């Protein structure tokens, strides 16, 4: 968090960026891998990035530099690990998080082996089975909804201006709408809902809640800037995508840059930088620019 605060002051503010998006700030499983941030253990604001005081200071410092703060936020799940101790010292087993959740607060869909999502053509499975083995919260229940809203409101009380809802596709939009209706303010919201051809759960179902991340844009830029030519990118308005006013777009993010699903800094012919420039210039959607680091393996 200290490094983000410094970046807001030295670069992001002077450069005119409106927001900075942070990694998830809650306590998570231990480990150096980037994805450990995405396995919550509790809603204590201590992560490998710093503690509550450092997080709050970062928000204040960024605001002073004219930069608002979006926190990556995980409503869908808790850990994939069977048991352990989080980075703030909280002990857990996969479906029992003392003082927060007990086994009755999770889904056990019974539709697939190990209760994991396999068939994305079944919306009930997408919304109630586990994403990659991560303990799936029963977001249709009153207790879970109130607990998630309590966490979000804690972030908002520290001055957080927006939330990125991780894995929103795996949560019924009615559940998300109920949770966000409990917020004490009206933050900017962007939701991770990845389009899948012919699948019943679509990005457009979530636009009444807030912005939705349009991954078809990411794929289109990868194709156009590497092999297809950019004439295909003249207009995105007639493709059936998320409407421009509700679309959050990006050349790459922390997932796609590692999975080969987008351009990244290793793309040939300066395609990555050119696509970033295109994204900032084109009127479709609200662009997000990734600030990342060099890495030699997926987990780095």
From TrEMBL:
Entry cofactors: Ca(2+)
Molecular functions per Gene Ontology: alpha-amylase activity; cation binding
EC number(s) on file: 3.2.1.1
Gene3D superfamilies given in the database record: Glycosidases (3.20.20.80)
Superkingdom, taxonomy of origin: Eukaryota
Keywords for the protein's UniProt record, in alphabetical order: Carbohydrate metabolism, Glycosidase, Hydrolase
Residues covered by the Glycosyl hydrolase family 13 catalytic domain: 1-300
The UniProt record lists the keyword RNA-binding: no
Catalytic activity: Endohydrolysis of (1->4)-alpha-D-glucosidic linkages in polysaccharides containing three or more (1->4)-alpha-linked D-glucose units
UniProt GO BP: carbohydrate metabolic process
InterPro entries reported for this sequence: Alpha_amylase, GH, GH13_cat_dom
Enzyme kind, highest EC tier: hydrolase
Coiled-coil ranges from the UniProt annotation: none
Family: Belongs to the glycosyl hydrolase 13 family.
The protein's name in its UniProt record: Alpha-amylase
Species in which this protein is naturally found: Phlebia radiata
């Amino acid at each position: 968090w200290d490094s983000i605060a410094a970046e807001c002051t030295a670069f992001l503010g002077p450069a005119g960026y409106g927001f900075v998006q942070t990694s998830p700030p809650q306590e998570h499983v231990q480990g150096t891998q980037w994805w450990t941030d995405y396995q919550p253990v509790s809603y204590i604001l201590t992560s490998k990035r710093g503690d509550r005081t450092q997080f709050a200071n970062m928000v204040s410092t960024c605001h002073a530099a004219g930069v608002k703060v979006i926190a990556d936020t995980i409503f869908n799940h808790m850990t994939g690990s069977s048991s352990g101790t989080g980075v703030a010292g909280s002990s857990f087993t996969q479906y029992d998080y003392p003082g927060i959740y007990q086994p009755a607060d999770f889904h056990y869909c019974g539709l697939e082996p190990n209760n994991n999502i396999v068939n994305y053509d079944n919306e009930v499975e997408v919304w109630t089975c586990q994403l990659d083995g991560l303990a799936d919260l029963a977001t249709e229940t009153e207790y879970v909804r109130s607990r998630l809203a309590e966490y979000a409101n804690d972030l908002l009380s520290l001055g957080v201006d927006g939330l990125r809802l991780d894995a929103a596709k795996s949560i019924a939009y009615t559940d998300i709408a109920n949770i966000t209706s409990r917020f004490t303010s009206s933050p900017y919201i962007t939701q991770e809902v990845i389009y899948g051809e012919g699948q019943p759960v679509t990005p457009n179902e979530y636009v009444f809640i807030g912005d939705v991340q349009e991954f078809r844009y990411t794929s289109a830029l990868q194709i156009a800037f590497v092999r297809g030519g950019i004439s295909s990118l003249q207009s995105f308005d007639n493709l059936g995508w998320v409407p421009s006013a509700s679309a959050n777009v990006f050349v790459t993010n922390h997932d796609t840059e590692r999975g080969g699903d987008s351009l990244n800094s290793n793309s040939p012919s300066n395609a990555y930088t050119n696509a970033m420039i295109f994204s900032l210039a084109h009127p479709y959607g609200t662009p997000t620019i990734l600030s990342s680091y060099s890495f030699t393996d997926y987990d780095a």
